[in-house]
Design goal:
The complex is a heterodimer.
Chain A lengths: L1 H4 L6 E7 L5 E8 L3 E8 L1
Chain B lengths: L3 E4 L12 E2 L4 E2 L6 H19 L1 H4 L3 E4 L13 H18 L4 E8 L4 H11 L5 E7 L1 E2 L11 E2 L7 H12 L8 E7 L13 H13 L5 E4 L31 H10 L4 E3 L6 E6 L2 E7 L10 H4 L8 E9 L5 E10 L6 H7 L8 H4 L3 H8 L1
Parallel strand pairs in B: 1-4, 4-5, 5-6, 6-9, 9-10
Antiparallel strand pairs in B: 2-3, 7-8, 11-12, 12-13
Helix pairs in contact in B: 1-3, 5-6, 6-7
Classes of the chains: A mainly beta, B alpha/beta.
Chain lengths: 43, 371
């Protein structure tokens, strides 16, 4: 339980389409002492 | 990864006294015969040269002693340390002039200017400055010590790194590299702050503030398999490690894992609590909130219970000028109750041993995943 619950897997993993000239805005919750890594990878 | 060799403690056969530290009795006294010490260092470096080759050993660092400005680690005085430094540095350079040697490996950035002045005066080889720093106040190594408290000054560690750089820049050897060969929130291997989820944001905020001032910052340590204070009493005992002794990943581990996922090109960011980078196939945004605890309690009390994290609302990221196309968005998190193995351990009642069911997988599998 301890190892699997805390194995660092992505909290969110979703496909996204970005259109030319259109910025992508993304919101997510933040708490004290949170560390968040957002990675956007071209497919 | 290359070795950073710390040359200490004193072999008993060469020691001038019998003062020791730690249960394994590291001798902290100067050599009784500096000629024999020089011969030992020369032979040791020659052995590494024979075994690994000069080209390889030239990529290593040699640091003389550990925290000689603390009498628990060095029974001599400053001038005796400088003598040890000079003898050792010259012995290393006999191996090859390209071998890198430095010091003073002090606690709390002590003796930096003094060592540079000494090396300038005596022409003793000095290729880099090394020192250590921790972010607690109080004295207390022992299990259960109530003395240590996290320093809440937002400049803790950061101001020390900048001051160290400033001391070098203002010296006669202004371009010497600066290596923090130890740093962490607490210098005790029994301080529960190391296990807390707060550590991930603490690490990143300290590294961000030190960026450009130090050439390296070595988090002390990789793992809780570390016995200066004797064998660890429980799976989460406040050890320094990014991993506990079962190989379980603490929140601090993820601070470094996330850093390692950043692309090689750093982009400008308006948020000081972030790194924004790009790689060949995408962009990465790493950001955090570091909030020091508002408490008068010792670390030993405060970090041994659940510490809820206040909701700070929504964070917004805006990506512009990205090439059109299909992407995958991945979000990784660490914080209260998220990749917070110590939080789960507390909820389980802080057992002295982890059963296989509670552990969640075999040790062999966990260790394999680290590799």
């Amino acid at each position: 339980m301890l190892a699997e619950k805390n194995d660092g897997r992505a909290a969110v993993s979703t496909p996204i389409r970005i259109d030319a000239g259109k910025p992508l805005r993304y919101e997510l919750s933040l708490h004290e002492n949170d560390v968040i890594l957002v990675m956007l990878e071209r497919q | 990864m290359k070795p950073f060799v710390e040359l200490s403690f004193m072999p008993n056969a060469l020691a001038s006294g019998n003062k020791t530290i730690f249960w394994w009795k590291g001798n902290i006294t100067p050599p009784k015969d500096y000629g024999k010490w020089e011969h030992l260092i020369h032979a040791l470096v020659q052995h590494w040269t024979d075994r690994y080759g000069e080209a390889e050993v030239s990529q290593w660092y040699f640091e003389v002693w550990n925290e000689p400005n603390l009498d628990i680690f060095w029974s001599g005085n400053q001038s005796e340390y400088f003598h040890l430094y000079e003898v050792t540095a010259r012995a290393i350079k006999e191996g090859a002039s390209s071998y890198r040697v430095g010091g003073p490996a002090t606690a709390g950035r002590g003796w930096i200017r003094e060592l540079i002045d000494f090396a300038t005066r005596t022409r003793a080889p000095l290729d880099f400055i090394s020192t250590h720093d921790y972010g607690v106040k109080g004295i207390g190594f022992a299990e259960g010590s109530e003395q240590l408290k996290l320093i809440v000054d937002p400049g803790v560690i950061i101001n020390g790194v900048r001051d160290s750089r400033s001391q070098i820049t203002g010296s006669s050897l202004p371009k010497l590299p600066l290596h923090y060969t130890e740093w962490n929130s607490s210098y005790s291997s029994r301080d529960p702050v190391h296990d807390s989820y707060l550590s991930a944001a603490y690490i990143l905020s300290r590294l961000k503030g030190s960026e450009g001032y130090a050439d390296s910052m070595s988090y002390w340590t990789f793992t809780d398999i570390f016995e200066e204070s004797g064998p660890a009493p429980s799976p989460f005992h406040g050890g320094f490690g990014l991993l506990n002794f079962n190989g379980l990943r603490k929140p601090s581990f993820y601070a470094y894992q996330f850093l390692n996922r950043l692309g090689k090109v750093e982009l400008e960011s308006e948020d000081a609590n972030s790194w924004v980078c790009k790689s060949d196939n995408g962009v990465q945004v790493l950001f955090w909130n570091y909030t020091a605890p508002d408490t008068t309690e010792s670390n030993q009390r405060f970090f041994k219970r659940d510490i809820p994290a206040k909701d700070l609302g929504q964070a917004q990221i805006s990506f512009a000028q990205l090439p059109a196309g299909n992407y995958r968005l991945n979000v990784y998190r660490v914080g209260h109750n998220v990749n917070d193995v110590y939080g789960d351990y507390l909820k389980a009642g802080s057992p002295l041993n982890l059963t296989r069911n509670r552990f969640g997988c075999s040790l062999r599998r966990t260790m394999a995943e680290q590799q």
